[in-house]
Amino acid sequence: MISINNLSLRYGKRVLFEDVNIKFTEGNCYGIIGANGAGKSTFLKIISGEIDPTTGRVDISKGMRMSVLKQNHYEYDNVTVLDTVIRGNTVLYDVMKAKDAIYAKEDFSEEDGIKAGELEGLFAEMDGWNAESDAATLLSNLGIKEDTHYKLVKELDGNQKVRVLLAQALFGHPDILLLDEPTNDLDLETINWLENFLADYDKIVLVVSHDRHFLDTVCTHVADIDFGKINIFTGNYTFWYESSQLLLKQRGDQNKKAEDKIAELKEFIARFSANASKSKQATSRKKALDKIKLEDMIASNRKYPAILFNNQVREAGDQIIEVKQLSKSLNGEVLFKDISFDLKRGQKVAVLSSNSLATKFFYEILAGQDKDFGGEYKWGVTTTTTYLPSDNSAFFKGSDDNLIDWLRQFSEEKDETFIRGFLGRMLFSGEETLKKCTVLSGGEKVRCMLSRMMMLKGNVLLMDEPTNHLDLESITALNNGMKDFKGTILFTTRDHELANTVADRILEITPSGLIDREMSFDEYMTNERVKTQKAEMYGVLA
Hints:
This protein is an alpha/beta fold. It has helices at 40-48, 81-86, 90-103, 110-125, 131-141, 158-170, 188-199, 212-218, 237-252, 258-276, 282-290, 356-366, 393-396, 403-408, 416-425, 442-456, 472-484, 496-502, 521-526, 528-539; strands at residues 2-11, 14-24, 29-33, 55-60, 66-68, 176-180, 204-208, 221-226, 229-234, 321-330, 333-342, 348-352, 374-379, 385-388, 460-464, 488-492, 505-510, 513-517.
């Protein structure tokens, strides 16, 4: 068990946490949520001992081993991949190295023999003889191929390093697992494996993530950081979000009788308890939901941006786009070829690829920014496209404008009140609208780009990884805005929930052609015919 007692953290006058008293118990996975800057990552660092609180303490049950997903991608550069993973269990690794050091001695003594025997016993107790095979299995499940296992970590690219460090954190079945954004840079198949792994995990897991589907799949509880306090709620993220929205609506409904509100809450909890029977953590989650006390449910104080795309400059006609034999190569590598399709008005298409460069250039071609490609495409005469790239740095580079002046350049209406209205929808108000572009965070830049998209009134949206850098509140608002949009969308995302609730068609672009299916994302991911086609198409290159 982890017990947090009277914990506070202050930086000068800024109070991040104040008098926090909570417990985390075995067999549960806790999703740590909160707005950007609320202190989610800092809280994990306090628990791991990396940061000392101003007051209070963290007590961990004796004998429990903690493992933390490391954020320093260069710490193990001169260590082999396999050794890096095994180091996740520091006790086992130290025993293994001490044992090897004794056997390597030239003047091996009787005393050394006794010590080696003791170490061999410890090594066997910790299942050390299976350490390398267990580490190799973890790496393979996370997409690190066997021929990479004995390379130095510095020989890997950034995405591979992330996976190695994740394997290190998971190795050896630690009693406490602290994971800060574990799905970053993982493809959807690997995220699905990690979801299954954590859903069956029987120890304590604390995880920070902006991936709602991931939180829904793995979490039994939500720990919400708000106004310097941390409150733990039973259920996954969707339960927390929908219950807080229901309570917020009830709080504003002055005429509704108290018994009607209670009945509505009871019906809501019963509905979620029934749904929990289908989850990977069915038994524990359903029992927990059944025990919820109504007085434990608290309306959230969160603010959600208003992302509304339906103010189109005009409605598009039936002809949206026709693409014929589209191809793109980069430095001799084929990113995609022979891509042909057309779109119907109102379709919402998730564009997939195992290579993020392929989707990047796919959008740049359709947005008219890349002229070096094969094949052709033609937009319908009534279409107006707006593009949200995965890398928005070019829009802010060298700009010393404040937010009002930055957004004004994309508007026909130059009135400041009008511009402030768009910024206000994205939660930039008052003096925040005068912030310089040079000091914006990644999430703030994306919110500015979304303001720009709404202002341009496109009837076709091109969106490459639109959830990058956004907090859960902004992602939820974006998800709702995309669902409600009456026009056409082509989008790429690693957010499972966004893909599954928005897309009605899937395009997967590969180096050997196109897979095109009119179905939901979940159907696509589980469809056996699709799996066979993917194997055949990727097999062309084998």
